[in-house]
Amino acid sequence: MDQRVFLARLAGTSVFDPNGDRVGRVRDAVISRPSSNKSPRVRGLVVELPPKRKIFIPLSRIIEISAEQVVSTGVLNMRRLQLHSDEILGLADLRNTTIAIQNNPIKQKIVDLAMGYDTKSKEWSITSVFVKGINSNFMRRTDNTLVPWSEVKFGDKLNSSTEAENIALQISQMRAADAAKHLLTLNTELRWSVSQDLDDETLAGVIEELPEDDRVALIGRLEETRAVDVLEEMDPDDAADLLSELPPETAATYLELMEPGDAEDLRRLLTYGDYTAGGMMSSDPVVLAPDATVAQALAAVREEEISPAMASQVFVVRPPTDTPTGRFLGVAHIQRLLRETPSTAISAVLDTDLAPVSPGATLSEVTRLFATYNLVALPVTDDAGRLVGAITADDLIDHMLPENWRELKEGANG
Predict the structure, then answer these.
(1) Percent of the chain scored above 70 by pLDDT?
(2) Please, where in the chain does CATH 2.30.30.240 lie?
(3) What number of H helices and E strands is found in the chain?
(4) I need a labelling partner for 181 at 20 to 30 A (CA). Which of 14, 203, 219, 244 fits?
(5) Helix (H, G, I), strand (E, B), or coil: what is residue 116?
């Protein structure tokens, strides 16, 4: 083996195209499902593209790979990551797994995995694991050790589906609200096991739909790095709500571990009251500059992650287009854009009559505006006229319902 890279160190590394433009970040590696003592082959990398879309890049499309950077050929398949039955995720599925090692009576927990490149076969595979001993004698310290893959013993766990894995597969195919309802029917430990088997994006959607006590309990059991990954997958307004429900020191730790841009958005949202426009809004609506074309606007709202309400209009601002943006100019409604030629600038079809609200606007003020003008979404601007977010109809309804509405049985009166 001429090269070795540790997956936990690789996670978070930037991925570039041949021109040096940043494509996204590495989040994990797809490997063949382990069997016997043969090193699992690394089939490709899980790369997260903005806005938080995880795709698969096969190693055949990777030019350079190191802990400092990954360079791709620039040819990407934009479909969402989907694993085959004979594949698992290296970090998500193996890290923290308890294993046995040949000639060692102490159980071990996997901390990291090393992938090595074989110049003869020209393939990457998992060649060794970095483990930490689990000793029942708390007075005795156990060291971290690098162990060859051939000495690792998993038992049957990775070769057969557990009840939790089967339920997780079912949940991943449900709507988030239905998945959350199903999760709550499980006993506490099975609920936890299922949660561990869900990918970050699915778990984030489920947590958004759970009652307050349940989501606080669930996020609190996750390891810090996993909790941060899940929070970054959540809608910013939901993530801010959850952070506000956690102990202040825990919330502060999560914010420190987040990507700086995500943390900045959440810190800003946390300064607003729950039942104000700032507390209800999302900080990442669809925003474009006035010289963008109709074709670009329609492409922007086509992203699967964007809710139908948020995709109903594009918010047009002076640069920069990240919130807080430059001066807010108006909105371009999708229904109007569909009637225009693709090359038309969106500045030509702006609705400037939709007056924004301030972050301090109350729930009753926002509700009256939605009802009076039959709105689907409403811009929120600061004192300088910069767009800081947008409130959608579903955000508003969430705040109009009783706090415990998720726990009320269907048909029950609030």
Answers:
(1) 92
(2) 1-160
(3) 16, 18
(4) 244
(5) strand
Contacts of 14 (CB under 8 A, 6+ apart): 22, 24, 25, 69, 70
Q: Is-contact 123 18, C-beta < 8 A?
A: no
CA distance 297 to 348: 13
Q: Is 0.85 surpassed by the pTM of this model? A: no
H-assigned helices in 173-273: 176-183, 188-197, 200-209, 212-221, 224-233, 236-245, 248-257, 260-269
pLDDT score for 101: 83
Residues in contact with 89: Cβ distance below 8 Å, sequence separation at least 6, in sequence order: 28, 29, 30, 31, 46, 83, 199
Nearest CA to 127 out of 146, 107, 106 is that of: 146
Q: Which residues of the chain does CATH 1.25.60.10 include?
A: 163-271
Question: Which amino acid is residue 103, in one-letter code?
Answer: N
Measure the CA–CA gap between 86 and 40, rounded to whole angstroms: 11
CATH fold of the domain at 287-399? CBS-domain (3.10.580)
CATH 3.10.580.10 in the chain, residue ranges: 287-399
Q: What is the pLDDT of residue 200?
A: 84
The answer to whether 328 and 347 have CB atoms below 8 angstroms apart is: no
Fold designation for 1-160: SH3 type barrels. (2.30.30)
Closest CA to 289 of 320, 311, 312: 320
Q: What is the mean pLDDT of the chain?
A: 87
CA–CA separation, 195 and 286 (whole Å): 30
Q: What are the distances in angstroms from CA 363 to CA 244, 273, 295, 307? A: 19, 10, 35, 21
Q: Measured between alpha carbons, how far is residue 285 from residues 267, 298, 307, 311, 386 in Å?
A: 17, 14, 10, 8, 13
Provide the β-strand partners of residue 3: 117
Report the share of the chain in percent with pLDDT over 90: 56
Look at 146-155, 202-211, 227-236 and tell me which has the smallest mean pLDDT: 146-155
Instruction: Kindly state the tokens that stand for 338.
Output: 């569909």
Q: Pairing between strand 14-16 and 70-72? A: parallel
For the 163-271 domain, the top CATH level (class) is mainly alpha
Report the 10 Å Cβ neighbour count for 33.
14
Quick check: 145 pLDDT over 50?
yes
Q: Pairing between strand 3-6 and 104-118?
A: antiparallel
Q: How many CB atoms lie within 10 A of CB 298?
A: 17
CA distance 45 to 59: 7
Report how far residue 106's alpha carbon sits from residue 95's, in angstroms, rounded to the nearest whole number: 17
